[in-house]
Amino acid sequence: MDAVNAPSVVIVDDHPAILDGVRAWCAAAGIEVLDAGPRVGVAVTGPGAGAGVVVFDLQLEGAPAYRDLTLLTDAGRRVVVYSQHADSDTALRCLELGAATYLTKAEGPEHLIPAVLAVVEDRPYTPPVLSGAMAADHRPDRPVLSEREREVLLAWFESDSKQLVAQRFHLSVKTVDTYIARVRIKYADAGRPATTKAALVARALQDGLIDLAGL
């Protein structure tokens, strides 16, 4: 992999063994680790502020660091949550707060590295624990999408390119953006925000618009 174009991460974790392990996995995969440390500040200032992806341990100082996660996602950072928690409520809440995807530490490099590479390219990645969380979520607060909104949303999931979606439906890219923005607004109004593409995929799975086989 060309070092100039290599994907980059910053690691936020307060366990030295995890930091060392993730560093080694990233190095083996050609992913540059710009910085690492036990506080969210390492991703906000210094070299880590320029990382393409934040690998984020949710459990900092003994409590779920939802505020720190929100700080990162509100700033537009792509966050891969890498946590010891395997319960559905925690995973889904992280998606609602804007995380790109959610993995447990038990899922290891087999899923963490593909997740980072997918998120760098703005592609969804759904590891096993997150798949189970999505499948188990049957909350009734589902927004009603228009037929065109649904068509554009699903086409975007399939193509990974708004330009291709625009060509398919003979629309402008700006119009495609408008449809996707409307879907985000509807989910936010329903109390289920989806600020990233991965979160929209999660919503579509939860609401039966697509299935895991379709991904």
UniProtKB/TrEMBL annotation:
- According to the lineage, what is the superkingdom? Bacteria
Provide the alphabetized UniProt keywords: DNA-binding, Phosphoprotein
* Stretches assigned to coiled coil: none
In this chain the Response regulatory domain maps to: 8-120
Please give the InterPro entries that the UniProt record associates with this protein.
Answer: CheY-like_superfamily (IPR011006), Sig_transdc_resp-reg_C-effctor (IPR016032), Sig_transdc_resp-reg_receiver (IPR001789), Tscrpt_reg_LuxR_C (IPR000792), WalR-like (IPR039420), WH-like_DNA-bd_sf (IPR036388)
**Known PROSITE patterns for this protein?**
RESPONSE_REGULATORY (PS50110)
Which residue positions does 4-aspartylphosphate occur at?
A: 57
The answer to whether keyword NADP applies is no
Query: Among its keywords, does the record have Acyltransferase?
Result: no
Query: What PANTHER family does the annotation carry?
Result: TWO-COMPONENT RESPONSE REGULATOR (PTHR43214)
Q: What is this protein called?
A: Response regulatory domain-containing protein
| Classification lineage | Bacteria, Bacillati, Actinomycetota, Actinomycetes, Pseudonocardiales
